[in-house]
Amino acid sequence: MAGGAAKYRHLSRKSSHRQALLRNLVTSLIKHESITTTWPKAKEAQRLAEKLITLGKKNTEQSRRSAISIFFTPHAIVPKLFGPLRERYANRPGGYTRVLRVEPKKDDQAPSAILELVDGPKDMKFAMTARTLARKRERGIYSLTELDSMNVRKVTNFRKGGPESLEEAIKKFTLEERKKKHENEEGQEQKPATKSEKGNQ
């Protein structure tokens, strides 16, 4: 509703417990750059994480104090927020995090998700794009579909090294695919013959 308070998920917790949960999630996110949790928790933690990275980009005494008040271990996390992450996202206007749906480990579990920092070493969309292009190139397909082109733009637009880093990742996955194929072929050659195969010899 216009002019009203922003809507948020209560996460079946009292306000103090909810805030403690979100503080713990964003502390883990900044530290590890990728966390797995439920979809509702990921979406709420994403909102707080975006605000924290914006504070890091402001890089003022006030923004630093605000960030310190949120993290459970500020001495370990704040230097990263106001250092490497501020530099990583200096030219990005927003969208510092991404939420990806994943299958829950058990059927009775709530919808699960991965919350990650984009353009980092654990950027899953970047890795998935590189792996997809590597597999296509192994099949002799070098042209990009409209979806491929869109994904390439998304994962390289603000990433340091952009297209060059994507090419490096593609080469890495290409080598992995070739190694896996070679191991499978060797396994087939060394596989012992079955009784029916021996009878036909």
UniProtKB/TrEMBL annotation:
Main location: mitochondrion
UniProt-annotated stretches for the region Disordered: 175-201
Pfam (any one): Ribosomal_L17
One example GO MF annotation: structural constituent of ribosome
GO cellular component: mitochondrial large ribosomal subunit
Keyword DNA-binding: no
Superkingdom, natural source: Eukaryota
PROSITE patterns: RIBOSOMAL_L17
Compartment(s): Mitochondrion
Biological processes annotated in GO: translation
Keywords: Mitochondrion, Ribonucleoprotein, Ribosomal protein
Function: Component of the mitochondrial ribosome (mitoribosome), a dedicated translation machinery responsible for the synthesis of mitochondrial genome-encoded proteins, including at least some of the essential transmembrane subunits of the mitochondrial respiratory chain. The mitoribosomes are attached to the mitochondrial inner membrane and translation products are cotranslationally integrated into the membrane.
NCBIfam families hit by this protein: L17
Family: Belongs to the bacterial ribosomal protein bL17 family.
UniProt-listed HAMAP family: Ribosomal_bL17
Protein name: Large ribosomal subunit protein bL17m
